[in-house]
């Protein structure tokens, strides 16, 4: 697990594109993300430093003790090995060690069962309360998009 660099942007874009479930941002977005939000993100790499998974996140400006997880993805060939959970654990431990981290937030569409399991499991491992509320109804989106539910986990224990 490592802090991403802009060099990881293209590989991460491919992982997002190939996931089949993520809203894929432009390649430029991932380059910018790893320039400006590298400290609140993580990549998992195979030998040879080839990224096989990533978590992108940022701190909420109004609540700097809250990490918002934007995307989590693992390369198809690496799934089922606990990589996503390990990345979340690594990232939150790194941020907690470097300052205040009390909550984790993410949004998940109703049909994304893998993400629901991932974040519920994270909350259990960290003995943290989990709140789930509708954040963005489907009609808020200009295109066909499922409603997004906000998961708020915390307070996280140090």
Automatic annotation (TrEMBL):
Q: What is this enzyme's EC?
A: 2.3.1.178
Q: Which Pfam families does this chain map to?
A: Acetyltransf_1 (PF00583)
Secretion signal, residue range per the UniProt entry: none
Q: In which pathway does it act?
A: Amine and polyamine biosynthesis; ectoine biosynthesis; L-ectoine from L-aspartate 4-semialdehyde: step 2/3
**Entry keyword Transport:** no
Please list the residue ranges annotated as the N-acetyltransferase domain.
1-148
**Which keywords does UniProt give here?**
Acyltransferase, Transferase
The family note in this entry says: Belongs to the acetyltransferase family. EctA subfamily.
Q: What is this protein called?
A: L-2,4-diaminobutyric acid acetyltransferase
């Amino acid at each position: 697990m490592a802090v991403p660099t802009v060099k990881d942007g293209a590989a991460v874009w491919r992982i997002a594109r190939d996931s089949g479930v993520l809203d894929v941002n432009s390649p430029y977005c991932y380059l910018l993300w790893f320039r400006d939000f590298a400290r609140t993100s993580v990549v998992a790499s195979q030998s040879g430093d080839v990224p096989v998974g990533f978590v992108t996140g940022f701190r909420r400006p109004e609540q700097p003790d809250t990490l918002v997880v934007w995307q989590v993805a693992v390369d198809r060939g690496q799934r089922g090995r606990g990589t996503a959970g390990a990345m979340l654990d690594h990232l939150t431990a790194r941020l907690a060690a470097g300052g205040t981290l009390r909550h984790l937030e993410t949004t998940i569409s109703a049909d994304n069962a893998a993400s629901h399991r991932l974040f519920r499991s994270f909350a259990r491992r960290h003995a943290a309360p989990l709140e789930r509320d509708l954040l963005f109804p489907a009609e808020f989106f200009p295109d066909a998009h499922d409603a997004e539910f906000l998961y708020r986990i915390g307070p996280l224990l140090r």
